[in-house]
Amino acid sequence: MTRSFEILGKFESESDCQKLLYAPLAEKLTCRETQVYRFEFEGDEAALEAFVQRVLVDAISQTSRDASTPAFEKRAFELEFGMKGGALDLEKEMIQNYYRSLENPGFELKKLTLRRRIYVFGEGARPEPFVRDVCNPAIHTWEVRQAA
Fold first, then answer.
1. Residues 6+ apart with CB under 8 A from 91
2. Euclidean distance between the first and final Cα of the chain, in Å?
3. Of 58, 56, 42, nearest in space to 105 by CA
4. Would you give the distance in Å from CA 43 to the centre of its chain?
5. pLDDT, one tens digit for every residue, the chain (148 residues)
6. pTM for the complete prediction?
7. Cα–Cα distance for residue pair 135/80, rounded to 1 Å
8. Cβ(68)–Cβ(32) under 8 Å?
9. Is 115 helix (H, G, I), strand (E, B) or coil?
């Protein structure tokens, strides 16, 4: 089975996209960033959800949701990117090490994929500058999803 969780900051709001880019934009665009964790697993889904809440979510400042649909409907597009399979991902390694240290987690972790999502808002937003400046083709894979 596969489950994806998107972690959002409770106190975060849209911010200027220019912080992500090297060259200035002609348009005034804003963005929100989130983290997505995809688990391929066998076993108790409730145990996986409890693991996510205990290990990946700060109950005071973050919330989690099902990542299969976009968190923000009014986006122009979303850029989702993560490390290629052979690249070292320290956060992923630490999560897997913690999972392996558990005596009885209640589920068997088959595969874990970490991705970053950037939701971009604003008229005339184009993904090309974001892909160019945020994604490194040597270490990242990415996908752009335009709003419907």
1. 114
2. 28
3. 42
4. 24
5. 999 999 999 999 999 999 999 999 999 999 999 999 999 999 999 999 999 999 999 999 999 999 999 999 999 999 999 999 888 999 999 999 999 999 999 999 999 999 999 999 999 999 999 999 999 999 999 999 999 7
6. 0.94
7. 10
8. no
9. strand
Rounded CA separation 15/104 (Å):
41
Fill in the amino acid letter for 121: F
b/e string for 49-76 if b means 16 or more Cβ within 10 A? eebbeeebbeeeebebeebeebbbeebb
27, 23, 48, 20: which is closest to 118 by C-alpha? 20
Structural tokens at position 18 = 């220019």
The two three-digit tokens of residue 148, written as one number: 């419907």
* Strands (DSSP E) found in the chain: 2-9, 15-16, 30-43, 62-66, 77-83, 107-121, 140-146
